[in-house]
Design goal:
- The protein has 296 residues and is α+β, with helices and mostly antiparallel strands.
- Helices cover 42% and strands 23% of the residues.
- The strands form 3 sheets. It has a 5-stranded antiparallel sheet, with no helix packed on it. A 3-stranded antiparallel sheet has the order 8-9-10.
- A hairpin with a 5-residue loop joins β5 and β6 (161-165).
- It is rod-shaped and about 110 Å long.
Length: 296
């Protein structure tokens, strides 16, 4: 403060001592929240604290004028102090919240930094060729309700609501987000369903221990063709796969004949479930048998 006043009044540095009375007067006549919005001079002397604007210089007249007393000025100053104090409280609360979130993150806990009305991204797990799970963030979604351990989110296009755990969500934007046409177009492209135009070629993949078929997608360019696992295609489009097998080489046909078909696998699972159910008595039958034994 002293250095700033020296530059402001353009005095020598060795004359800083003459500025001390001005600094003391400013401190003694300034109301502070720690003293109940009172100035030190009021508490020590019991006298009303004069405002610094009581005397002012009017350039047009070249004289000092005295500001008349007005009760509204004190009210305005009190309102200003309250407003500044409330603003500082918001800053302090946000700083404390961020500090607590940082501590949680250091401990490895799940950090939730969004609430109702905000927009979040949802993690979608896709099965990859190596049988590993890859998380893809899709959205954004709007948070509708906050529960104890999960959040209810709403799709911006379809309006469908999903109950998702907090660990599967990530903050995207607050409630003031402007949902534009470009954003909606981006969201709609995330759930696109592709139709198979033709099965073109195949190759062996050592990582999954199965063949992959090169798929041409309807409506897409040839550069966008992709290899998909034979097992997945046999489950989704069995007729097209059977047609392709008839035109493939002998190695591929032999592998297809050794592999169980989708229908056989489902029939085998149903037979196992039937045998398991038949080998166990229902709770009602067990209770009836027990009652008969006790009666006899």
């Amino acid at each position: 403060m002293i250095r700033s006043m020296i530059l402001e009044y353009k005095i020598a540095h060795q004359d800083w001592i003459y500025l001390i009375p001005m600094v003391q007067s400013s401190l003694n006549h300034t109301a502070v929240p720690s003293l109940g919005n009172k100035a030190p001079v009021e508490l020590f002397t019991g006298l009303p604290c004069p405002t610094p604007l009581k005397d002012f210089y009017l350039p047009g007249t070249g004289e000092f004028k005295e500001l008349p007393a007005c009760d509204k000025i004190d009210g305005f100053l009190d309102g200003l102090r309250s407003s500044i104090h409330a603003m500082h409280n918001v800053v302090d609360d946000q700083r404390l919240k961020q500090r607590l979130l940082n501590k949680k993150r250091e401990r490895g806990e799940n950090v939730v930094n969004f609430t109702e009305g905000d927009y979040v991204l949802r993690s979608r797990v896709d099965e990859k060729k190596t049988h590993k799970l890859l998380v893809t963030w899709v959205g954004p979604f709007r948070v509708v309700r906050a529960d104890a351990h999960s959040f209810l989110i709403k799709h911006l296009i379809t309006g469908a609501e999903l109950d998702i755990h907090a660990s599967r969500l990530k903050f995207y934007a607050d409630a003031s987000l402007d949902v534009t046409e470009e954003l909606l177009e981006h969201i709609s492209s995330q759930g696109i369903i592709l139709a198979v135009e033709k099965l073109k070629d195949h190759r062996w993949n050592d990582a999954i221990g199965d063949f992959e078929i090169l798929v041409q997608w309807r409506g897409l360019e040839a550069i966008e063709d992709s290899y998909e696992p034979l097992t997945s295609l046999a489950r989704d489009i069995p007729i097209l796969v059977n047609q392709y097998v008839t035109t493939a080489d002998q190695e591929f046909q032999a592998h297809w004949q050794r592999a169980p078909t989708i229908g056989e696998t489902q029939q085998h699972e149903r037979s196992i479930a039937t045998e398991t159910t038949a080998g166990q008595e229902s709770p009602a039958a067990q209770a009836s048998t027990t009652a008969s034994a006790l009666y006899n």
